Amino acid sequence: MALIGVFDSGVGGLSILDEALRQLPQHDYIYLADSANAPYGEKSSDWIAQRSLVLCRHLADKGCDAIVIACNTATAEAIKQIREQLSIPIIGVEPGIKPAAMQSQNHIVGVLATEATLKSDKFNALLATLPSDCRFIKQAGAGLVPLIESGKADGQETLELLAKHLEPIQDAGADTIVLGCTHYPFLRKAIRKLLGESITLIDTSDAVVRQLKRQLDALKPSSASPEFGSVLLLSSKNENLLLSMAQDLMSADLASHSVEAQILGEVR
């Protein structure tokens, strides 16, 4: 049994934790939401890199065997530095533009992500490796993360803002949309309401957790362990709100796990 850290700027990484609890329920988890500073996508590259390193080091100091950076923006801006500084496996997330290019029937793919992700060297280097016959419509989802953070993923305000962001993607005729921020899988219902069931939605939660499993298997062989591990939720803003949102947004049976929520103290 391992202790796994999952770090995100806010509640978006709960989509990764949800999948991890589905595939690997026997492990213990610390989920760290830096909601006091969300969204990261509107902050400077230097700030994101420094803050992400500090928080991942905090998780490593708590004894985590591996850390998932469940934030596309933090992955793009900070994962190289974090891997250089920490000696445990660090698993990142990135928009699933490669599988989207392979699955699109008309070779027109929308990418809904934060401004920081879309401008990052990591994202654009990945984009440059893909076939030139696939057209990518890049769209920053400005304002969506704060709405999701405030529990309004299914609200009318979110639906109206989302419709504006999806308009260029829809006008281009995209048949596939990449959910390029871990917050955005919680908008699936709203996207389906706006665009219908035929649009293909791509997120990488499953692939990220499979990579985590490979890293853990290489780290230590599986051994006898409880069926369900513990989950500690840490928030830099409001631990009770984080717990409430985890219960609302996640499909995993949290009642099967020992769950505790705490406020994140000052970290340096």
From TrEMBL:
Gene3D superfamilies (UniProt xref): 3.40.50.1860
Active site per database record: 71, 181
Coiled coil: none
Family annotation (SUPFAM superfamilies): Aspartate/glutamate racemase
Entry EC number(s): 5.1.1.3
Residue sites binding substrate per the record: 8-9, 40-41, 72-73, 182-183
Listed pathway(s): Cell wall biogenesis; peptidoglycan biosynthesis
UniProt keywords, alphabetically: Cell shape, Cell wall biogenesis/degradation, Isomerase, Peptidoglycan synthesis
Catalytic activities: L-glutamate = D-glutamate
Primary role: Provides the (R)-glutamate required for cell wall biosynthesis.
NCBIfam families per the UniProt record, alphabetical: glut_race
Family, similarity comment: Belongs to the aspartate/glutamate racemases family.
Full protein name: Glutamate racemase
The species this protein was found in: Polynucleobacter yangtzensis
